[in-house]
Amino acid sequence: MRKNPRLLSILAYLLILSVGAGSRFINPEEIKASEKWNLFTTLPPVSSESQKTVLGAQDLYSGSYVLPVQGDMLLAHINKFNALPSTYVPPGLTKVTSVSTQGTQYLRGSILPYLYQLFGAASQAGFKLSIVSAYRSYQSQVATFNYWVSQYGYTIASLGSALPGHSEHQLGTTLDLGLAGKEWPTGYSGSAASSWIAKNAYKFGFTVSYQPGKESITGYIAEDWHIRFVGVDLAAQLHKKGITLEEYLSRL
């Protein structure tokens, strides 16, 4: 039987984490209670190197603060500790048209002009982008996470996931990018298109939330496909300073 190298690397990382995390990290009862959790990323972690500085089990299970819904929530500080209410639905959800999408996707209507400009500029640079995933409801993420738990078990699945309400996708301002006609994420991650996005997304108000080398700050493995709209001015500021949105919001 052919062994899965991705799974082996995750198991090795699990062993390292469990030394200091106590038995709760591998408690079978938590696997049974997995229905209350949801998936942040579409796939389980793929790189043992990028996982070395991801927040450990003590942080993952340390509890949450549910953010009050105030204003447009465009800059809501969502991370491993701050969550959106489970009932939160962003205003103005609109079906994304005119660009390539995998299935039907929704985002806030107010950010679509910026998105279309981004896709247009990418096309001129030779990259045909596609939206793999945009708005995700709290409930849809629960279902997705349950699937990955059934495939890998709760502990492994949770290494690349967020707790309920902790996903930026629930804001309706966040999307996962891919390349039209290419496999995802392998066809996009680390590609010339990914590099172009990292250098140019800010011009259209987007920032890459989970950047390489920032794992210990964001608490998530690097995801070069995951971008969030924060407005042109702030995106330019983040890009100029070389910091993530998490760093910016944590300093306020």
Explain what this protein looks like in three dimensions.
- This protein is α/β, with parallel strands linked by helices.
- It has a single domain, classed as 2-Layer Sandwich (Muramoyl-pentapeptide Carboxypeptidase, domain 2).
- About 35% of the residues lie in helices and about 15% in strands.
- It is built from eleven helices and nine strands.
- A five-stranded mixed sheet has the order 4-6-7-9-8.
- The N terminus is likely disordered.
- Keywords: Carboxypeptidase, Hydrolase, Protease.
- One of its GO terms (biological process) is proteolysis.
- This is D-alanyl-D-alanine carboxypeptidase DacB2.
- InterPro entries: DD-CPase-like (IPR052179), VanY-like_core_dom (IPR003709), VanY/YodJ_core_dom (IPR058193), Zn_M74/Hedgehog-like (IPR009045).
- It comes from candidate division CPR1 bacterium GW2011_GWC1_49_13.
Put the structure in a nutshell:
By secondary structure, the chain is an alpha/beta fold.
Briefly, what CATH class?
A: Alpha Beta
How many domains comprise the coordinates? 1
Strand content: 5-15%
- The chain-level mean pLDDT equals 78
How would you classify the quaternary structure? single chain
Shape: globular
Q: What characterizes the major β-sheet?
A: 5 strands, mixed
Report the uncertain regions: 1-62
CATH topology grouping? Muramoyl-pentapeptide Carboxypeptidase, domain 2
Order of helices and strands: HHHHEEEEEHEHHEHEHEHH
The tally of helices reads 11
* CATH architecture label name: 2-Layer Sandwich
Gap between N and C termini, in Å? 52 Å
- How many strands in all? 9
Structural class based on helices, strands and sheet pairing: alpha/beta
Kindly report the spatial arrangement of strands forming the biggest sheet: 4-6-7-9-8
* Helix content percent band: 25-40%
Radius of gyration: 18 Å
Organism: candidate division CPR1 bacterium GW2011_GWC1_49_13
Domain D-alanyl-D-alanine carboxypeptidase-like core: 106-231
Pfam families: VanY
GO molecular function, one term: carboxypeptidase activity
